[in-house]
Automatic annotation (TrEMBL):
Its main location: cytoplasm. The keyword rRNA-binding does not apply. GO terms for biological process: G protein-coupled glutamate receptor signaling pathway. It comes from Scleropages formosus (Asian bonytongue). It is found in: Cytoplasm; Postsynaptic density. This is Homer scaffold protein 1b. Residues 139-148 have a biased composition (Polar residues). Residues 1-111 form the WH1 domain. Residues 172-310 form a coiled coil. One of its GO terms (cellular component) is cytosol.
Length: 346
């Protein structure tokens, strides 16, 4: 089994062309997934593989006649004749698309060089077998080449006609025995040829069976290689998921701390609200007392004003009384002086 290793990975949204319309794109992943280039060092093959969970949504072998086309700043596509589809990738940035296209061109050139080297090796390996086959075709093995033609077997040398009859009869017997032996050999060769033909048919059947078995094993090897590459992808994906889980756990912990802080702020806000409500109640009570005091103050001001008016009237009356008293005192003083004069005069 060949061993494939990822040599470049990125993340993108994966699409395939609609097989019915050949125009619309059909998304094969709900979110961005990992898309990787794999290299098989044994078969010298480059592949693009992507998994959505445990499902392979891209399994494309790069060939020299493939072309990766940028259709927008963040989208590219290529056609895979073996898979009979067109793949599309949507990237998060133009830089990711440019990097993927550069890798595609690099591995496409590497696939072309590997194919040329493989063809050269096949040509070198096939040259000796072709030469031997030509040699075999130039000298085929036939019964005539072994036994000779009928003319060679039945036509004696012309010089035998001059021999005596007895000697000619012995030669004829010799040739008849030789002919019988040749016929026997010819029959054996014919039987061997028929047996060989039957064996060739059997070998062809066995070869076909071996070819079918080899094709089945090749498919099984391809499936196992795909499973191996998928296992590597799953392992990579699992590592990424573990990293994502750790990041999410860290983010969750930060959110929990933030929630605790918000709870404390809410408790503080509730306490402040209770204090505000208490202060509002006190303010209402103070405003009520203030209104009462304002009423009392207004009453006192009214009473003070009335008292001031009464005091003013009292002062006026007091002044009048003082003026009258002063007049009376003056009159008494005059009366005293008059009485003193009278006393002195008497």
């Amino acid at each position: 089994m060949s061993l494939e290793q990822p040599i470049y990975s990125t993340r993108a949204h994966v699409f395939q062309i609609d097989p019915n319309t050949k125009k619309n794109w059909v998304p094969t992943s709900k979110h961005a997934v990992t898309v990787s280039y794999f290299y098989d060092s044994v078969r010298n093959v480059y592949r693009i593989i992507s998994l959505d969970g445990s499902k392979a949504i891209i399994n494309s072998t790069i060939s020299p006649n493939m072309t990766f086309t940028k259709t927008s700043q963040k989208f590219g596509q290529w056609a895979d004749s073996r898979a009979n589809t067109v793949y599309g990738l949507g990237f998060s940035s133009e830089n990711h698309l440019r990097k993927f296209a550069e890798k595609f061109a690099e591995f496409k050139e590497a696939a072309r060089i590997a194919k040329e080297k493989s063809q050269e090796k096949m040509e070198l390996a096939s040259t000796p077998s072709q030469e031997s086959a030509v040699g075999d075709m130039q000298s085929p093995l036939t019964p005539e080449s072994i036994n000779g033609t009928d003319e060679e077997r039945t036509t004696p040398d012309i010089t035998h006609n001059a021999l005596p009859f007895s000697h000619s009869s012995a030669i004829n017997k010799h040739w008849e025995a030789e002919l019988a032996a040749l016929k026997g050999n010819n029959a054996k060769l014919t039987a061997a040829l028929l047996e060989s033909t039957a064996n060739v048919k059997q070998w062809k059947q066995q070869l076909a069976a071996y070819q079918e078995e080899a094709e089945r094993l090749h498919k099984r090897v391809t499936e196992l290689e795909c499973m191996s590459s998928q296992a590597n992808l799953i392992k990579t994906h699992k590592t990424e998921l573990n990293q994502t889980i750790e990041e999410l756990e860290s983010a969750l912990k930060a959110k929990e701390e933030e929630i605790e802080g918000l709870k404390e702020e809410v408790d503080n806000a509730r306490q402040l609200q209770a204090q505000r409500d208490a202060l509002a109640l006190k303010l209402q009570e103070t405003e009520a007392r203030s209104r009462d005091l304002e009423g009392q103050l207004a009453d006192l001001e009214q009473r003070l004003e009335s008292s001031q008016l009464g005091q003013e009237a009292f002062r006026k009356n007091l002044r009048t009384l003082l003026e009258i008293l002063d007049g009376k005192i003056f009159e008494l003083t005059e009366l005293r002086d008059s009485l003193a004069k009278l006393v002195e005069g008497s």
